[in-house]
Amino acid sequence: MPAVHRNSRPVLRPVLLALIAAISLGACQTRQSQLAQDDESAWYIGAKADKPFDIPLVDTNRLDPKYRRQTVAYTGLEPAGTIVVDIDQRQLFLVQEGGTALRYGVGVGKQGFSWKGEARVGRKGVWPDWSPTPTMVSLNPDLPRTRKGGLDNPLGARALYLYQGNRDILFRIHGTNEPWSIGEQMSSGCVRMLNEDIADLYERVPVNARVVVKRGGKPRTI
Question: Where does the secretion signal sit in this chain (predicted)?
Fold first, then answer.
């Protein structure tokens, strides 16, 4: 099990402040949040060993209890191994055997940007690089064409890339360096999780895992 450094506080404040002040990077980026006015460094309580960067650990006492990782009863019809994202509740479920699920809090797309439907995990990434879509570039030609993975990258520590068939639909389940956005409807479409939570989910689900994203109580088949 990776070592947890309880007494070390990652030096995140400068990069987080720079990120919040930066121009929006696109589909997985947020608008500036009023919640970010709080002292960013107060959100962090240490780091968990990881490569090539340690994963910043969040003080989850700052979150509403319903957004903290926990095992819950699950009555849905999806089989074990399915990822179910409830946009309305801002929660992600990994269905388990025996009528339970692991539940995580998530941040979702702001009004008009939240995707829903069925997909699969087409690939997975560790501290992934970020790149804008062609649409983003057409709207903002000055966007950087790539951003290397790291603490100041909007995709965070891990990413699950959603596909339909062999087509990357450009929506992700990924980490975030804005933990205050969990439970909020802020992003431009992607589903974001605490870095420690997406790292946990990443280890539990394989490529080709089924993903169901619900809004208004049900998914829309595309």
Answer: 1-26
